[in-house]
Design brief:
Layout: H1 11-43, H2 56-104, H3 134-140, H4 153-156, E1 159-167, E2 173-180, E3 190-198, E4 213-218, H5 230-237, H6 262-283, H7 287-291, H8 308-321, H9 325-348, E5 353-354, E6 357-358
Antiparallel strand pairs: 1-2, 2-3, 3-4, 5-6
Length: about 350
């Protein structure tokens, strides 16, 4: 019996099939490689896989960088604005010169007067030239009223002008100038106080930046006539700091002596800096409105002030003046509130350097 036999497969057919299979596999590999390369180029990772999402830390750092850029632009804005104010102050000087002429009653001021067609009841042919006590009235109508003692008023009656001179870079600042007529108390015709400004954020707390801040101030020497030193008289007449003379404003070293606790010195000088800014920003440009009582200073109190004089006036005055048992029971509570107020003010102060100590606005 013959065994079955199978037909042999042609060699050409077998080789062709194998070749087609290899070509298809190579084409598939090439397509996959191209796809991987395209994905790699799109993701930028070089690995052919999608980039992982950024962490929250990276986002926070990016946000902080933007915040720093905003603060840097604010610094530039404030410096540019101050330079413009320095350049423009000559324009304001014309107005302040006219005001000074009217107040002092100079011959030049007569052409500035607006003559009424009909004289009023207050018009008299023999009335004095100028406006007597103009600047004393302005100061007493301002937030600084509590600084003026009765003994100061005679000297301040001779105050004929208050000016502010802005200082440009490299050390920006401003000088307050108090011009006096000859008087019986001191020989100075000019008393000055200079404030130095800085415009730079704290690298550790850039978010606290709020424009220019005062970091140092320098007063002047008052040449008192014999027996007329109002500062010494006020210190000897009263034991409490509420009796300090207005003229102690020109001697800031008395505000925080060298032996003062550093934290308390910061709060005390913060108060002095507030006065300087207030004179510059409100008293000088709004002197006429203050004189006419068109501005109510009831809301412009120094409630955040921590100087001994203001603390006495605002927190201790009623308690110390009251001797009834009911008042005596309330005294510890009032003193506790005042201590709490002082703590808040000290926490708000950032600490400038003044005479080697850390103080601030």
């Amino acid at each position: 019996m013959d065994s079955p036999t199978s037909e042999p497969v042609p060699a050409a057919v077998t080789d062709s099939a194998v070749k087609d299979t290899l070509d298809e596999q190579m084409a598939s590999v090439e397509q996959r490689i191209k796809r991987l390369v395209h994905e790699s180029q799109s993701s930028g990772t070089g690995t052919g896989t999608a980039a992982p999402p950024p962490t929250i830390g990276a986002k926070v750092q990016a946000l902080r960088k933007v915040q720093r850029q905003i603060v840097e632009k604010e610094v530039k804005l404030y410096l540019t604005t101050h330079a413009m104010e320095v350049e423009f102050q000559s324009e304001f000087r014309e107005c302040y010169d006219a005001l000074a002429q009217i107040v002092s009653g100079t011959a030049e001021s007569q052409r500035l007067l607006v003559l009424e067609p009909e004289p009023t009841a207050s018009d008299r042919a023999d009335q004095a030239l100028g406006v007597a006590g103009f600047w004393l009235t302005v100061l007493k109508a301002s937030m600084l009223d509590h600084l003026i003692e009765e003994a100061d008023e005679q000297a301040l009656q001779k105050l004929k002008d208050i000016r502010c001179e802005l200082k440009p870079e490299p050390t920006p600042g401003f000088v307050l100038e108090f011009h006096f007529e000859p008087n019986a108390f001191f020989t100075n015709e000019l008393l000055t106080k200079e404030y130095f400004l800085r415009c730079a954020p704290d690298p550790l707390k850039p978010s606290m930046f709020n424009g220019f801040e005062i970091f140092h101030c320098v007063g002047c020497r008052i040449d008192w006539r014999e027996g007329q030193n109002l500062i010494e008289q006020s210190e000897s007449d009263r034991e409490d700091a509420a009796g300090a003379s207005f003229f102690s404003f020109f001697e800031p070293e008395r505000c925080a002596p060298d032996d003062t606790d550093p934290d308390i010195a910061v709060a005390l000088l913060e108060c002095d800096f507030q006065y300087g800014y207030y004179i510059r920003e409100k008293i000088i440009p709004r002197a006429v409105s203050l004189f006419l009582r068109e501005i109510d200073n009831a809301k412009e109190t120094c409630d955040n002030c921590a100087c001994q004089r203001c603390m006495y006036k605002h927190f201790f005055g009623s308690a110390l003046d009251c001797s009834t048992p009911e008042c005596q029971e309330e005294k510890p509570d009032q003193m506790g509130r005042s201590n709490s107020q002082e703590t808040v003010v000290q926490q708000d102060v950032q600490g400038p350097a003044i005479d080697g100590q850390k103080n601030e606005h």
